[in-house]
Amino acid sequence: MTRPDPATSFELHVCLTCSDPDVARRRQHEGGGAALLAGIKAELATRPFAAQAVVLAYECLGACTPRGRVSIAAEGRWGVVFGGLDERRDMAALGDFIGQWLAHPWGEIPKPLRPVSLRKKIIGRVPPRRHDLNFAAAETGGARTSQAIVQVALPATAAPELPE
């Protein structure tokens, strides 16, 4: 298997031990992480960006209240955390979202452009690690984030005293 180029690839993280977000399905031990992973793999196979995807299955991603957790991440892009995804109903919308996310500078998709069925299933967004790239992009005329970014100064700390 050829490893995707880190400059153009993205990661999908799937929680394997999640039970289904639907209580009735949980009681019947249906759905959940393994079914969600299978649904994501099937959906990606239909998308032109499939070769860019690195799918990683995790034993647990935490935040267990919204079952069916998936996150997407890539260098220099906003990460997105979803909860409550269902492998029967949400895979096409997730595929659409990923396509938008890849096409949009910084991975920022304005709320009105997000698939309606996923809007309430976004439980968090994680800023890109390097915001200074935003300022460099502005200087060179490249794409920049629409987020206002202010670096907060921390108070100076005294050097620890060393024992004599």
Core attributes:
Glutaredoxin, 5 strands, 164 residues, 24% helix, single chain, alpha+beta, 4 helices, five-stranded mixed sheet
Q: What would you say this structure looks like, in words?
A:
This protein is an alpha+beta fold. The chain has one domain (10-140): Glutaredoxin (3-Layer(aba) Sandwich). It has four helices and five strands. It has helices at residues 23-27, 33-44, 91-103, 132-140, and strands spanning 10-15, 53-58, 70-73, 79-82, 122-126. A hairpin with a 5-residue loop joins strand 3 and strand 4. The mean pLDDT is 81.
Model regions low in confidence, pLDDT < 50 over at least 5 residues: none
Largest sheet: 5 strands, mixed
CATH class: Alpha Beta
> Helical residue percent?
10-25%
User: How would you classify the helix and strand content by structural class?
Assistant: alpha+beta
Number of strands: 5
Q: Kindly report the spatial arrangement of strands forming the biggest sheet.
A: 2-1-3-4-5
Q: Approximately how much beta-strand content do the residues carry?
A: 15-25%
